[in-house]
């Protein structure tokens, strides 16, 4: 009784003191926000689990085993990882994990390296990592059957490079003690071969028709039920892309993820003093993907200043009911009213801001002013609770994708992307140029809105939420007890962002 209570109070005091020391949030927030930040961090850490089992890997279409199974098992594997929500999503998600590690490495770099190392140990001979890790009974119990099989042609954003870039940059900037820096350097050296394999898998399997272009493979070009074929591999699920997928597509978000990965590999190779032809290729590709004129030629809409995907697209699509009188049923199917053509895909949303998030726009460019216009326009992305995922002007805004699929990334406020946009605003508010002051003003207002809304929802409901409702006063929605990337509120409070300099 009393002894345990005393020990718990002592541990709680230690936790609070360490939290204050690491995140240094004195004078940045008020006391009620401080307690919510501590709750977010402790819930993220408390959700970390150790999972063991075998993923199921889909066989190519038309193939099956003698027993009828359409999959083969991956090798038995262990995974130490954080999760988006221990109660609702008790499994590892590759693209979520990079955002989790942005918080965790700041708390304990050793835990973070252990987790990243476990993920890299799941890489196969081709350099592929399954994007969802459904290992063991707990994980499997929460997965709909159609999402169990993993497809070795499909990727997921390589967000682990966000945390790895921070670790590498921290060594360059002497942010760690000599002992910590030595351990991180040793880890990066050991991880380098796997990271290279992972990068080369992306570079070879997700490349586009033309040099320097990329698109998310795995979209269904035969579907008749989806208003816009989903891109689950991008992490943005039903965010609108080209209406008719083919190999002419160019996805601006994937191009930016590749730029991040290239710059990270270049940075690691630099301080490890590697100088083979492979490292020279990273320098070459980094310069190629950083080329602002090429980026604009491929993806920029000059009129709006938004970056768009490119592909075979028409806006003239809709879902309508078709009746099958013989079968006595009706189906909601897609109808195309106009032939698609190769063009920019005109949907303003998170994807339109990816070059901004990555700091790829020169601070003096007119494009930066246009991007700030998009961010600040309440008819487009701005709300008093955070930035919505898709513009209110989009033809897909809050549209269902199928009879059973409610809009997901078509308007809701997501914290991981808002954090990335805040990082961009913070970056440009410190870069000399004509838009420095405006970027700083938008940064302060967006940061304040996000903190107020997340804290308010937590105090009202006791939960952190998967996303927040842009139409209903920022109310939390989706999975609750979602302490995965919503815990980035800790870094928003601390004003702790990744460096966007190469």
TrEMBL record:
Pathway given in the UniProt record: Glycan metabolism; N-glycan degradation
Domain Glycosyl hydrolase family 63 C-terminal residues, every copy: 3-495
GO biological process: oligosaccharide metabolic process; protein N-linked glycosylation
Keyword list, A-Z: Glycosidase, Hydrolase
InterPro entries in alphabetical order: 6-hairpin_glycosidase_sf, 6hp_glycosidase-like_sf, Glyco_hydro_63_C, Glycoside_hydrolase_63
Protein origin, superkingdom: Eukaryota
GO molecular function terms attached to this record: Glc3Man9GlcNAc2 oligosaccharide glucosidase activity
GO cellular component: endoplasmic reticulum membrane
UniProt keyword Hydrolase present: yes
Family per similarity comment: Belongs to the glycosyl hydrolase 63 family.
Protein name: Glycosyl hydrolase family 63 C-terminal domain-containing protein
